[in-house]
Amino acid sequence: MGMQHAVILEIQQWIDDNLERPLRIEDVATRAGYSKWHLQRLFQQVIQIPLGIYIREKKLESAAHELLVTEQSIMTISSKYGYDSQQTFTRTFSRKYQMPPGVWRRQHQHMGKLG
């Protein structure tokens, strides 16, 4: 594994560990020591997903997990993961999970408490 590959895997882990923070591509690139454009190209090559999409998907997955295992309001969770409004979060969530977060929480919450 080359050094660039290792850096990308390290950055991927750092992103996963910091999903509750605002994660701008520029900031991630600075942390990696690469230009924004170079980091995006390398990330796509190594992880097979564009960096911006990876960050958005991971934040959404973490928010979905929190809907299951906490009693926090949808507004609190959406804000925690950087959504400007609950409406934006609901639209994005519904696109991925085919239902709004409140409905999804009610239908899946028992699964979160089993794990």
TrEMBL record:
InterPro entries: Homeodomain-like_sf, HTH_AraC, HTH_AraC-typ_CS, MarA-like. It comes from the Bacteria. GO terms for molecular function: DNA-binding transcription factor activity; sequence-specific DNA binding. Pfam families: HTH_18. Residues 9-107 form the HTH araC/xylS-type domain. Transmembrane segments: none annotated. Keywords: DNA-binding, Transcription, Transcription regulation. PANTHER family: REGULATORY PROTEIN SOXS (PTHR47504:SF2), RIGHT ORIGIN-BINDING PROTEIN (PTHR47504). This is Helix-turn-helix domain-containing protein.
